């Protein structure tokens, strides 16, 4: 799955669950997806674990292809990363998410996922500056989500890019914590504001899988001593939410509090909260 440079030869990529031919067709369509306005954003609420009030929304990209119908991000994001189409797509996501969030009350933040391929583009920080100034969104309301994979290649380039946007006032979250090639050393390399505990540890937390609970407890304690907050992902039931809250996680995200939704539905969420 490595970039073959000229783009002529590609290794079989099992994680895509697609044949070479299907992949070729998807890539062709994805090249035109932005221009054809087939991409859109959903927004999923992140709530304060104690008050259950919405603190931010995570922007999640959706692709409804004219040819293929809806294609899941689990399928097209890896393809977009391999082909570097994630660079223009990611810029569009950043612009769109900042413009939407700028319409929200000032205390509500926006989380935007950023792939390693975006961070190694020389103009990443500039594109964030543009998205902020064009939308009028305060930098403090933008949190960028990255995974440990940014440390695998060009780690210093990625880190410098993130430090540039942190200097603007943005924060950076470490996403999918515990699923990658976890080395705790990564936590020393960047001042992450938040560690997002992956949903694989969270799901079934109420059925008290002793191992998952021990891991969540340890991550919460570690984050706290590093001055970072924790967000638990994939919380689907009230029992899981209560378990997570009692373990001291700061924020919760998951179907129990809200699925990824349209921008208009997201606005209704905090309008309803304000009316209370
Ligand atoms: P992620 O960043 O870890 O996003 C969370 C995923 O978990 C989302 O899947 C969300 O819909 C799903 N989820 C949220 N709550 C629950 C729950 O309670 N239960 C379960 N089972 N799932 C839940 P989605 O939207 O399919 O996105 C998949 C991945 O695609 C994301 O994982 C992220 O890595 C990537 N992605 C999505 N949008 C973007 C984007 O704009 N840029 C980049 N670079 N990657 C993106
Ligand atoms: Ca994320
Ligand atoms: Ca995640
Ligand atoms: Ca994930």
From TrEMBL:
Organism: Qipengyuania benthica
Domain EAL as annotated: residue spans: 23-274
Domain of life according to the entry: Bacteria
Protein's name according to its UniProt entry: EAL domain-containing protein
Shown segment, full-protein numbering: 492 to 767 of 770
Taxonomic lineage: Bacteria, Pseudomonadati, Pseudomonadota, Alphaproteobacteria, Sphingomonadales
